[in-house]
Each structure stands twice: as structure tokens, then as C-alpha cells.
């Protein structure tokens, strides 16, 4: 049985930076799972008695940390545990902006979903989260995107996610 510890501290070298450190002395995640931090769904995740982790989790946490002006770092050793470190930028209270930031702001997503109804739902949800969405019909030749979402396995790319209905 493991133990989880949360440490929060102000970074001594950068006054506007706050560091959250989570130490989990449980089984630890695999190095393959950590690859999902930058490439969601690249590798399978482990399961335990509570269920199986979603491969998108680390990527979404890192996106959130980036939106907060920081990043997520994960170090693990199987059977010894995992150390999660999140650095975020924290401005003094009077400098906070009132603009609401969304999870997928500044993320562009290519959505290639066959069903018009399903595509409309997916586009609406991604846009609610702040993503800029494009479809293959709208894409300009040199237009780049961060994430590719498709329901057609033959169209799947290395940076893509396979969407199953």
C-alpha cells in the first residue's frame, strides 16, 4: 500500500512561480505511460482495482499546466512510486486577469469524423473547451494542427486519436 504526499512551495529562483509536488509511493507508472504526457494514446495504461487510467490524462494535465504558464514533469520507478511536479506561474493577486482561460485554448484540432451528427457534437465540445477546430474539407494545404481526431483507422496518423462510437 502506498502513500500520497502533496508539497506546495514558492520557487526561490522565480518569485512568480509556484511548485506543486505530488509523491506517490505506490506501484508507480510505467515509462511507457509517461510518453502519453506529450503524445496521448501512444501507450496503454495500467489498471488496478479501481480501474484503468485514461491515456489522455497526463496530456490534459500538461495542457492545463501550460495554460497556467508552467509545465508538468513526471518521474517514475516501477514498484517504487511516481513523482509528479507541476510548475505554474502565479501573479500577485492584484495582477490576475479576469479573462477566463479554457483547457484547449491555443490548441488546433483536425476533426475527421464520418457522421455529421457526431462530428457536430465533437466540434461543439472541443470549441467549448477553447480548441480551434478544422475539418479536412476546410483545411488549407500548409495549415498545421496539434491533434488529429478520426473515426477511420485507415486515416490515423502518429499524432492522431482514434474516435470510436
TrEMBL record:
GO molecular function, one term: protein histidine kinase activity
The protein's Enzyme Commission number: 2.7.13.3
Keywords: Kinase, Transferase
Superkingdom of the organism of origin: Bacteria
Pfam family, any one: RcsD_ABL
Domain Phosphotransferase RcsD RcsD-ABL stretches: 101-164
Record-linked Gene3D superfamilies: Histidine kinase-like ATPase, C-terminal domain (3.30.565.10), Phosphotransferase RcsD, RcsD-ABL domain (3.40.50.11620)
Histidine kinase/HSP90-like ATPase domain: residues covered: 2-90
Protein name: Two-component system sensor kinase
Originating gene: yojN_2
Amino acid at each position: 500500500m502506498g502513500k500520497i504526499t502533496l508539497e506546495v512551495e514558492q520557487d526561490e529562483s522565480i518569485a512568480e512561480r509556484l511548485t506543486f509536488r505530488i509523491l506517490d509511493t505506490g506501484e508507480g507508472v510505467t515509462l511507457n505511460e509517461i510518453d502519453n504526457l506529450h503524445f496521448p494514446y501512444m501507450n496503454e495504461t495500467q489498471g488496478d482495482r479501481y480501474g484503468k487510467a485514461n491515456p489522455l490524462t497526463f496530456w490534459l494535465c500538461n495542457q492545463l499546466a501550460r495554460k497556467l504558464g508552467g509545465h508538468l514533469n513526471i518521474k517514475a520507478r516501477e514498484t517504487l512510486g511516481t513523482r509528479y511536479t507541476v510548475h505554474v506561474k502565479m501573479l500577485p493577486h492584484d495582477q490576475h486577469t479576469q479573462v477566463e482561460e479554457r483547457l484547449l485554448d491555443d490548441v488546433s484540432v483536425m476533426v475527421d469524423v464520418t457522421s455529421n451528427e457526431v462530428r457536430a457534437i465533437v466540434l461543439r465540445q472541443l470549441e467549448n473547451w477553447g480548441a480551434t477546430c478544422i475539418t479536412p474539407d476546410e483545411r488549407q494545404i500548409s495549415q498545421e494542427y496539434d491533434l488529429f481526431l478520426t473515426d477511420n483507422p485507415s486515416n490515423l496518423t502518429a499524432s492522431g486519436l482514434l474516435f470510436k462510437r
